[in-house]
Amino acid sequence: QKEVEQDPGPLSVPEGAIVSLNCTYSNSAFQYFMWYRQYSRKGPELLMYTYSSGNKEDGRFTAQVDKSSKYISLFIRDSQPSDSATYLCAMRAVTGNQFYFGTGTSLTVIP
Amino acid sequence: DTEVTQTPKHLVMGMTNKKSLKCEQHMGHRAMYWYKQKAKKPPELMFVYSYEKLSINESVPSRFSPECPNSSLLNLHLHALQPEDSALYLCASSQGLLARAQGGNEQFFGPGTRLTVL
User: How high is the mean pLDDT of chain A?
Assistant: First the structure.
């Protein structure tokens, strides 16, 4: 079983839709959770960072962590064509300096 | 400033060449990483340096040789590569080995070097 599971998509939505992206994980030691956006042929860009359980909002983006279910989500409101990219979830434990990545979800927002 | 810089942006090399990739960060981070990323795949960890010492080597072939000259710089020396080594090479940094409560544990990536081996 992989440490982190993420549906690769592809996901295609109309402009203005609410997008929900999800990851599940198996290691209960994970405490720090990240979402990255990666445009084609570019490096991943950190979008959201959350610690332990709860919600965090930043503009049109909301990150949720449910540690009891080992499930994290990223919601994008009022999606724009510029949101078309691959979204990677990543997480790490308290100790160790290794980050574990999902496989990435490819998102296309259609104008 | 949350910037990690990488040079060059693109590199084409033959199988007998020797070249180096460079990475720099000025965030005071003490952990630096090299990843390899193939198309439509997540980043694959190669090496981790913690406080300028090699902490993790994910069984990477010896034709890849990392170096951390100081806390801000990370190099990846390439020699006798194979065409299957063509990929996007990403550098990243984070604060350090031990995560702190709540803040400062995220990882920042550079833009990558797109490597083509002929």
Answer: 93
